[in-house]
């Protein structure tokens, strides 16, 4: 039975490469055409493959529907939380998880610092969209016309002397973030708080969330915080792998 299942599952990535006829499927599996035909018929009956008019087989609509349903039911917060906790245990600083929803960037998870000085951010609260590192990552992933349209609509409050002053500066920052694959907020929202962030990507490579580590200057300097960037990026990559089904498990130190 396990061999039959293994063979059936081997057919799916073959057909993901494009339509294939019975002979090609049999050759890939290393079986007789009659065996390949039985497997294809079973997959066809369940909607996982479809036989075209030219007698070649391609992936069926049922497979795409199941994949879409699975993606919609994935809870990025549930998947990310153990990773965020582990990162917090390793570095001791505040860790955030954020998503972009309806023109706002919201914190959806937070693990507090172990140090006495705490941040006042709250789960469900919008971030300062023009300066927050997580917001830069999420907005940098938007197509260029959407980035430009959004940047033109935003207000640019000067929280500190390091705040993003206007739309052109914001667009330049987003382009930089897009190219380097990570972001910072070094005193842009609060002069005493620094933050470094990395993107979490889905199976299609698009940014679905962003995570960050934040700390006040009285605990670590901005330069010291930046040394954590490789660890933050490894954690984000581990979450991305688990979310997209590529690599289960927690990030290694």
From TrEMBL:
Residues 2-61 form the HTH iclR-type domain. Keywords: DNA-binding, Transcription, Transcription regulation. PROSITE patterns: HTH_ICLR, ICLR_ED. The keyword DNA-binding applies. InterPro entries: GAF-like_dom_sf, HTH_MetabolicPath_Reg, Tscrpt_reg_IclR_C, Tscrpt_reg_IclR_N, WH-like_DNA-bd_sf, WH_DNA-bd_sf. It comes from the Bacteria. Coiled coil: none annotated. Pfam families: HTH_IclR, IclR_C. Residues 62-245 form the IclR-ED domain. This is IclR family transcriptional regulator. It comes from Streptomyces broussonetiae.
């Amino acid at each position: 039975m396990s061999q039959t299942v293994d063979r059936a599952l081997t057919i799916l990535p073959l057909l993901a490469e494009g339509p294939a006829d019975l002979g090609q499927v049999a050759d890939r599996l290393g079986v007789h055409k009659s065996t390949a035909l039985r497997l294809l018929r079973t997959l066809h009956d369940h909607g996982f493959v479809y036989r075209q008019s030219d007698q070649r087989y391609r992936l069926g609509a049922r497979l795409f529907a199941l994949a879409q349903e699975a993606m919609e039911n994935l809870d990025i917060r549930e998947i990310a939380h153990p990773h965020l906790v582990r990162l917090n245990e390793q570095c001791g600083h505040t860790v955030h998880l954020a998503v972009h929803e309806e023109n706002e960037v919201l914190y959806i998870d937070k693990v507090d610092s172990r140090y006495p000085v705490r941040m006042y951010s709250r789960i469900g609260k919008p971030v300062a969209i023009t300066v927050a590192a997580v917001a830069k990552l999420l907005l940098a992933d938007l197509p260029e016309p959407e980035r430009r349209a959004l940047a033109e609509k935003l207000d640019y409050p000067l929280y500190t002397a390091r705040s993003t002053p206007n739309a052109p500066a914001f667009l330049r920052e987003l382009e930089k973030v897009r190219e380097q694959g990570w972001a910072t907020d070094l005193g842009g929202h609060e002069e005493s708080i620094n933050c470094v962030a990395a993107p979490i990507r889905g199976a299609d490579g698009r940014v679905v969330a962003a995570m960050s580590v934040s700390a006040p200057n009285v605990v670590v300097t901005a330069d010291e915080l930046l040394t954590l960037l490789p660890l933050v990026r490894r954690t984000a990559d581990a979450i991305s792998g688990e979310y997209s089904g590529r690599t289960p498990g927690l990030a290694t130190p």
